[in-house]
Amino acid sequence: MDKNEDIKVRVDHLTKYFGSLHVLDDVSFNIKKGEFLCVVGPTGCGKTTFLNLLTRIYMPTQGELYIDGEPADPKKHSISVVFQEPSSMPWLTVEKNLRFGLEIKKLPKDEIDRRVEKIMDLMGLQEFRNSYPHQLSVSTAQRIIIGRAFAMQPDLLLMDEPYGQMDIKMRYYLEDEVIRLWKEMGTTVVFITHNIEEATYLAERVLILTNKPAKIKEEVHIDMPHPRDVTAPDFIEIRNHITDQIKWW
Ligand SMILES: Nc1ncnc2c1ncn2[C@@H]1O[C@H](COP(=O)(O)OP(=O)(O)OP(=O)(O)O)[C@@H](O)[C@H]1O
């Protein structure tokens, strides 16, 4: 049993209906502080709905989501979200894209400088400091978004299929970058993906959801150091186990 102070998010008997459409069915689980959690599940089972409940775009039909012991509240909790579509601001340079949210938060200039430099170093963005997003490759543009999200030092970072449109080489590269940032910053990350290998590569724990109305089918703990070797027998065994569970979707 986790101690209360170790829990970042508590999902307590969460149920969501859209009209008569039953999407989430009495789902309960915790996310630990600093944990990297992947959520996998069949198309349309309610993964994005779960993120939208955390950010209060939607309200639960029943049950509640708590962040640091209080009902999730975007006014109180800082939550950053990274989507599949690159969403940097095209009229701002890379550096200004990274500064933007921090300036809105009215952080002191030296704190903004410190965070932006750290993210630029960690994400290898220094050479693109004065470039505009349209001058960059898709993967570099997505690195701005990911860097920007980590720079906010959010309570919670939600990533919804952020690498969905990328080819496998870019994916591997960005997966390693996201792990590096996560380790360095200690952020709690919820990462949604359809890609079982990606979940096995990244997560400390994988939540497998059923078809809707979604429940938790199984939780898989992955106690392997990063970066993981996708050809190692342990890795393949876990990946195959998750795939087997998914065959029953
Ligand atoms: N605002 C809404 N009003 C009505 N139905 C909705 C709404 N948002 C989502 N749904 C429905 O709820 C179900 C879950 O959608 P959701 O986008 O959460 O699934 P998902 O697991 O993220 O899907 P995917 O794997 O395709 O990304 C779907 O049937 C969807 O059509």
UniProtKB/TrEMBL annotation:
Location of the ABC transporter domain: 9-236
Stored Gene3D superfamilies: P-loop containing nucleotide triphosphate hydrolases
UniProt keyword annotation of Lipid metabolism present: no
CDD domains from the UniProt entry: ABC_NrtD_SsuB_transporters (cd03293)
GO MF, one example: ATP binding
Organism superkingdom: Bacteria
Record-given protein name: ABC transporter ATP-binding protein
Species of the source: Anaerosacchariphilus hominis
